[in-house]
Design a protein that fits this description.
single chain; Butyryl-CoA Dehydrogenase, subunit A, domain 3
Length: 407
């Protein structure tokens, strides 16, 4: 028996005393959507259920498993986080939301890594325990894939920074207590060097959150407008002009989490295998080859996540390996949907049962190739920082942001 196996037994016993076992109602839910769309009331209720569970898990010593000990984590390798997710799958654990994942997987670790001792003491623990919820305020209408082109301004006034600008595609912003914000503090240097990060209280005067209503009826995303909003310098995360370091580490956390396999997104390889069984297709040699291919890709993703999380547990930023994991995860998600569509045939467009559930996966999977950094961005990172290929031409590399043409 390995250490992980013994630890699994402890986790299983704790889960059995904390949440009920998974029942038929969970298996019959048919939720294969990549992006969940809920009403405000339903999302709030789910958030509270997840927070109650996450607090209990954190207090039991099972929160922030792969974060270094000095950052409030357990310092364990990714195999423990994967084991935790596998054990949780047998119980009626409330499904996580994007806001919870951003809080515990991105903002909490970023504050723990870059914050001052005082900031870590005040915010890191509450974020990891979900006592505080935090969204990500990075993307802008004109700065998505080219995030360093962000135009949100922060001007120092005494011991406060005055914020003006707009952010977009912020998951769960209307329920967040804080937002990890990137703003431009020096427009007269090249774009990557004039950015600073802040932990912005979302109830600050001058902060307006507008839900983005989707055609599905949900409004998980929001746009955030900043008009003369003031944030104390004491809530600056990292040094002035060092926001790009915070951003790249946070994005690496995001890509690592996306590729870890511990956060369910849409249908899984096991779901496709079950679909093939229910349709009596598992003896078809072509189908067997497709399922084997998905399994191999799933193992590759898990192995990459293990390697990245070991580095993270040692206090090393995930770096470009996070891009490898994100690329593997988005590719697997798309291929999983395509295999399900092949199995279902015409039912994928006409069925209101299992076929409809897979339609939600099939329509959402391409969006995952954009969320958290496009596939093209990940390939650029891998090409330059892993394979050592010549960097792409960047004519604006040494040009002050104020001299760049925009729009």
């Amino acid at each position: 028996m390995t250490d992980v196996d013994a630890w699994r037994g402890q986790v299983r016993a704790w889960l059995a005393g904390t949440v009920p076992p998974r029942g038929p109602e969970q298996d019959a839910s048919g939720d294969l959507a990549v992006f969940r769309n809920l009403s405000d009331d339903d999302e709030h209720a789910l958030l509270e259920a997840v927070r109650a569970y996450r607090r209990a898990r954190y207090d039991a010593g099972y929160g922030a498993l792969t974060l270094p000990l000095e950052h409030g984590g357990a310092g364990l390798p990714a195999s423990y986080a994967i084991a935790m997710a596998q054990e949780e799958a047998a119980f009626a654990v409330p499904p996580s939301t994007e806001l919870i994942s951003v809080t515990t997987g991105l903002v909490g670790p970023a504050v723990a890594m870059f914050g001052t001792p005082g900031q870590r003491a005040e915010y890191a623990g509450p974020l990891l325990r979900t006592d505080l919820l935090a969204c990500q305020l990075f993307s802008e209408p004109g700065a998505g894939s080219d995030l360093a082109a962000l135009a949100c301004r922060a001007v120092l006034d005494g011991d406060e920074w005055v914020l003006d600008g707009q952010k977009v595609w912020s998951s769960g912003a209307r329920f967040a207590d804080h937002g990890l914000l990137l703003a431009r503090t020096d427009p007269d240097v090249p774009k990557h060097r004039g950015i600073t990060a802040f932990l912005l209280p979302m109830r600050t005067p001058g902060v307006e959150v507008r839900p983005i209503r989707q055609m599905s009826g949900g409004a998980s995303f929001a746009e955030v407008f900043l008009t003369g909003a003031r944030v104390p310098d004491g809530l600056r995360i990292g040094g002035v002009g060092e926001g790009w370091r915070v951003a790249t580490a946070t994005l690496a956390f995001e890509r690592t989490a996306s590729g870890s396999g511990t956060r369910r997104k849409g249908g899984t390889v096991d779901d496709v295998v079950q679909l093939a069984r229910s349709l009596g297709r598992t003896s078809d040699p072509v189908v067997r080859q497709q399922l084997a291919d998905l399994h191999v890709r799933s193992v590759l993703r898990a192995a990459t996540a293990e390697r990245v999380a070991r580095a993270a547990a040692a206090g090393v930023s995930p770096g470009p390996a996070g891009s490898v994991g994100k690329l593997l995860a988005s590719d697997l998600l798309v291929r999983t949907g395509e295999t399900a569509a092949d199995l279902l045939g015409g039912r994928i467009t006409a069925d209101t049962g299992e076929g409809f559930a897979w339609t939600e996966h099939l329509l959402g999977a391409p969006g995952y190739r954009l969320a958290g950094g496009t596939d093209q961005v990940q390939r650029t990172v891998i090409g330059e920082r892993v394979l050592g290929l010549p960097p792409e031409p960047r004519v604006d590399k040494d040009v002050p942001f104020s001299a760049l043409r925009r729009g």
